[in-house]
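Researcher: Structure prediction, please.
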Amino acid sequence: MDTEMNDLASPSQSSPSMTGNSNQTKTNSSSESSVLLTKPRLQELVREVDPNEQLDEEVEDCLLQIADEFVENVINGSCLIAKHRIQNGSNRDNKVEVKDVQLFLERNWNLWIPGFGTEELRPYKRTQVTEAHKQRTALIRKALKKY
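Model: Predicted structure follows.
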């Protein structure tokens, strides 16, 4: 089990990008796993947003690097949460679960994974109506009654 726990190492121990060597990151990520976002797929995504938009080569490289770093950050953070959960005896299964990823994304990026529920109910936050807004809507209603 100790060997498996070392697999869930902290980002500073397992992440080449944290060491500041970006060339090592590109080499490790391409040799260890498949590429998550390719240049053709990135161009396809850009065409979905704006068919006339064309990205520069440098911009494409930068966006691909940001995407890779984001995924690596989420994976490392989720592993740390799973490691903490396992060490505290909540579950002895040495696996990263969806709830680990959910927790990391929600706490660090304020993102929510749709389609995966949790045990907790999330209350809908109703925005407070300001006095200025009430006055504007009253003026609009008054103007509409005239016509």
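Model: The first helix runs from residue 2 to 7.
Researcher: Thanks, that helps.
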